[in-house]
Amino acid sequence: MRTSLIGIPARWVTFAMSAAFVVCWSSGFIGAKLGAAEAPVLTVLMWRFLVVAAALGGVVYFLWRRRGLAPMSLRWFGSQLVIGGLSQAGYTVTVYWAIALGVSTGTTALIDGVQPLVVAALAGPLLGAVTHRRQWWGLLVGAAGVVLVTWSDAASSAAAPWWAYLIPLLGMAALVAATFLERRVDDSPSPTVVLAIHCGASAVIFTAAGLLAGVAVPPADGTFWLAIAWLTVLSTLGGYGLYWVLLRRSGVTSVNTLMFLMPPVTALWGTAMYGEPFGWATGLGLAMACGATWVVNRPPSSKARDRREAEARTATAAP
Predict the structure, then answer these.
(1) What is the residue range of 139's domain?
(2) Sign of torsion, CA 62 201 126 130?
(3) Model pTM?
(4) Least confident stretch, 13-22, 100-109, 180-189, 306-315
(5) Number of domains composing the chain
(6) How far is Cα 187 from Cα 238, in angstroms, rounded to an integer?
(7) CB count, 10 Å around CB of 58?
(8) How far apart, in whole angstroms, are the C-alpha atoms of residue 50 and residue 262?
(9) What's the pLDDT tens digit per position in 164-202?
(10) Is the CB of residue 94 less than 8 Å from the CB of residue 28?
(11) Which residues span the membrane (predicted)?
C-alpha cells in the first residue's frame, strides 16, 4: 500500500481530501443563497473573487520573494486564464443566477449532478481514458439518484420559472470544458499559482460586469461579508483548490463521480439552514449517490487487475 510523505496510507489521504472537497464544494450553493439575499448576483461574485484574488496574489508574491517561481510560458498562462474563466466565472454565474430566480440550492446542485456521466462519456474520445463496465453501472446508479432527488425537489417548489432549471446545465458544460482543457495543459508550477490565476481572471470578469451594471458598491450589512468570507474560504480555496488537486491525484472519472454526492449533501445543508424540504426521495438519492461513488472509486479486485494486465500485455505483443 502506498504511503504519503507523513506515513499515512495514500488512499486514506485521498479519502480525506475527497470528503473535504464534497463539503467545501457543496458549501458554494449555500453561500450563493446567503449572498444573493443581501445583494445582486454580480455584486456577490465581484467581491468574492476580488477578496480571494487579493489574498492569493499576496501568497504568490511571498512565495516568489522567498524562493522564486518556476517560469511559465505565455501559452500556458493564456490557457489557465481560459480555464479559470470557464470553471469559475462560467460555472458560478449560472449557479447564482438559478438560485436568485428561485431554484432551491438542492435542485441547483442536483442538475449539476449529471456532470459525471458527461465526463465519463467524453473521457475516452478526448483523453483516451477508459471507463470500465463496473464504473458505468455506478455512474448510471448515481445519475438515477440525481434524477430522483431532482424530481422530488422541483415538484415541492414552484417558486422558479421552468426555464430557470436549464441554467445550471450551462454552468455544468463550462466546468466540463475547463476540466478537459486542464488535462491537456502541461503540469503547472504550483497549484497556488494556478488558483491565483483562475481567481484573478474571474475577478477581472466580474469587476468589469459589476461596474458596467452599476452594482459594484457592496452593502454594509454584516451578513454580506459573512457570505463573502464563507465563499472565499470554503467554496473557492477549499472547493476549487481541492478539485484541481484531486483531478491530478485520482483522475477525471473518479473526481467527477464525487459530484453525485453534491446534491444530497447540499440538500442537507439547505434543510438545516433554510428549512428546504428533505423527504424520502432525497434520502434515497443520497444512498444511491454514496453507493455509486463507492462502486466507481473502489480499487479493482486482484483477479480483475490480473486480467487487465494480461489483456494489456497481449495488446502490446500483438503485431
Answers:
(1) 19-298
(2) positive
(3) 0.73
(4) 306-315
(5) 1
(6) 21
(7) 11
(8) 26
(9) 878 888 888 888 888 778 777 766 667 788 889 999 999
(10) no
(11) 12-32, 44-64, 76-101, 113-130, 137-156, 162-181, 193-217, 223-246, 253-272, 278-297
Phi, psi of 145 (to 5 degrees): -65, -40
Taking alpha carbons only, the member of 98, 125, 92 closest to residue 25 is: 92
- Calpha distance 184→252 (Å, rounded): 12
Question: How many C-beta neighbours within 10 Å does residue 85 have?
Answer: 18
Assign residue 124 a region (left: φ > 0; alpha: ψ between -120 and 50; beta: otherwise).
Answer: alpha
Residue 172 lies in a domain: yes
Q: Is residue 14 part of a domain?
A: no
Based on DSSP, count helices (H) and strands (E) in the chain, helices before strands: 15, 0
pLDDT digits (tens, 9 = 90+) for 124-134: 555 555 556 66
The more confident residue out of 11 and 300 is: 11
Enter the C-alpha cell of residue 243.
Answer: 478539485
What's residue 205's pLDDT?
95
Residue 311: burial class (beta carbons within 10 Å; 0-12, 13-18, 19+): exposed
Q: Which amino acid is at 210?
A: G
Q: Is residue 311 part of a domain?
A: no
Q: Which three cell numbers stand for residue 58?
A: 499576496
- Give the whole-angstrom CA distance, residue 120 versus residue 136: 8
94 occurs within a structural domain: yes
Instruction: State mean pLDDT over 108-119.
Output: 66
End-to-end CA gap in the chain: 35
- Beta-bridge mates of residue 9: 3
